């Protein structure tokens, strides 16, 4: 019988996956806007750039950046909630104490520096528990988790580098900053896609029954049966 942690985990996974997909789409569209802006900057070295194209490019970049940032925050919050409940569900299924408490996962994911290590380690521990491996053995993450971890770290490093690069001034620094934004957006898109795969796989491991695939039977009405005619001898 599913526990409350199982149900909350499945519910959050059902919300996190489409949100991550939507966020990935927004990030890739923003990357396209950044690529257009970079092309305009290259053209401006040899020829005048039309004001309309320049303003449109700026508007797309700013709008895409703001909307994708908000979507990323929402998708990240839901995914983090999924991680907390998935860790609880895995520990309950294995009759173990969770290696990390919920607040530790939240702090470790949000605090700079710690977020380079804690999310990947938490996923490795979650996968280890979900596969019913020896609890006393050191977790050996799969290639999927390791790949997610590497992309996650690269994305965080690129984001920090881009933020610091924006403090520089000059035409060349601006052009390099646009290129950094482009690469950062592409890596962010890879993070969202990989996260979708990880969430789906670990959710299936912890809860193989997919509610979406179960046919739901609903009682519409009950027809009162007619009493049989009594038979007299």
Q: What characteristic shape results from the CA principal axes?
A: elongated
Residue runs with pLDDT of under 50 for 5 or more positions? 210-218, 227-233
Percent helix, as a range, is over 70%
Radius of gyration from the alpha-carbon trace, in angstroms: 25 Å
Mean pLDDT, nearest integer?
Answer: 85
Number of helical elements:
6
> What oligomeric state is this?
single chain
> How many distinct domains?
1
Distance between the termini: 53 Å
- In total, how many beta strands? 0
**Would you tell me the structural class of the helices and strands?**
mainly alpha
The main β sheet shows up as: none
Q: Give the strand content.
A: under 5%
User: Order of SSEs, N→C?
Assistant: HHHHHH
Walk me through what this model shows.
- This protein is mainly alpha-helical.
- The chain has six helices and no strands.
- The longest helix is centred in the first third of the chain and has 43 residues, at 51-93.
Helix/strand layout:
Layout lengths: L3 H40 L7 H43 L8 H9 L7 H13 L12 H23 L5 H36 L27
